[in-house]
Design goal:
The protein is α+β, with helices and mostly antiparallel strands and 296 residues long. The chain is 25% helix and 29% strand. Strands 8-10-11-16-13-14 form a six-stranded antiparallel sheet. A four-stranded parallel sheet has the order 1-2-3-6. The longest helix has 21 residues, at 166-186.
Length: 296
């Protein structure tokens, strides 16, 4: 919905609640949409003021077609991290979780794709980058492949012949992996983001200032990465959820500890202990499309 539709939706959802009393959700544009009718910050404020929504759902599909003739093309949407951080911050302020959609197919118009068909690393990164910014629910667009019309689609998780595509297996793999630590993230507040070695430009800007340290980590080094900073609402333990900044990047991540000689991490969904070296550094190696959750 656009801003001008929220009052009608408020009336509708209140009626729905009084008649059925069941869970409902409304999906929203991402923060990069034009002509919303107000700022995105104001839209979220108004949405929660006007409705008794249990969560905030949105979709932004960042995996663009590569353009070999455009030297500035890099394959992912500009402003994507800004939008994620804005939604992270505003839903944290409201005390409401957010759910994000992940792209499973190519999308375009009139036979021309603008968003690429994702491979394994694309899908994994798209899941993990949403989790790094605090998503509590991952949804997929789409399961069955839509028919082409005004919009053009490649095949999603289930092809036009009704058979599973390779993306079905990619999603099965990543779902199984993050369920191993998902119960932790479900009960954490996403407090902010650490960047390492990212330029301060439109592509990587955030809604709020990045963190420089978190928990027992007083500095970071190594290759470029994005780390979501989480605090468990029960145990008050701190966590970093770390992933490379694009689907094509691998990363050697260096966490310098203020104290302690090791951290517990989830690698490929499995919990293990990684010891610090003599300088107090914990070194983590991430392949493209991977992520780790570290208790710090």
């Amino acid at each position: 919905p656009y801003r001008g539709q929220l009052e009608d939706l408020s009336e509708y959802t209140k009626t729905y609640d009084s008649v059925f009393g069941k869970f409902w959700s409304i999906n929203h544009f991402g923060a990069n949409v034009d002509n919303l009718g107000c700022t995105y910050e104001q839209f979220i404020d108004d949405y929660f003021e006007l409705t008794d929504a249990a969560m905030y759902s949105f979709d932004t599909y960042p995996l663009l077609e590569f353009d070999e003739n455009d030297p500035s093309a890099h394959g992912e949407m500009d402003g994507f991290f800004y939008g994620l951080d804005l939604i992270r911050s505003k839903t944290l302020e409201k005390g409401k979780p957010f759910w994000a959609y992940v792209q499973t197919l190519g999308i375009g118009a009139n036979g021309v794709l603008t968003k690429r068909t994702p491979d394994r690393e694309d899908i994994r990164w798209n899941v993990f980058i949403n989790l790094a910014f605090g998503a509590k629910g991952i949804q997929y667009f789409t399961y069955f492949t839509p028919a082409n019309g005004t919009e053009t689609f490649t095949e999603g998780m289930i092809g036009l012949d009704g058979e599973k595509t390779e993306r079905y297996d990619y999603i099965k793999e990543v779902n199984f992996e993050f369920q191993k630590y998902g119960e932790i993230l479900l009960h954490c507040d996403a407090e902010g983001i650490i960047y390492n070695k990212q330029p301060n430009n439109r592509r990587y800007r955030l809604y709020e200032e990045k963190f420089e340290q978190y928990g027992i980590v007083d500095s970071v080094g190594g290759d470029s990465f994005v780390a979501g900073c989480f605090r468990h609402t029960g145990s008050q333990r701190n966590y970093l959820f770390i992933t490379p900044p694009t689907p094509r990047d691998s990363a050697e991540v260096v966490l310098h500890l203020k104290k302690g000689k090791a951290v517990n991490v989830y690698i490929k969904g499995e919990r293990t202990e990684v010891k610090a070296d003599g300088d107090g550094n914990v070194i983590l190696k991430l392949a493209a499309g991977d992520a780790v959750l570290a208790e710090v």
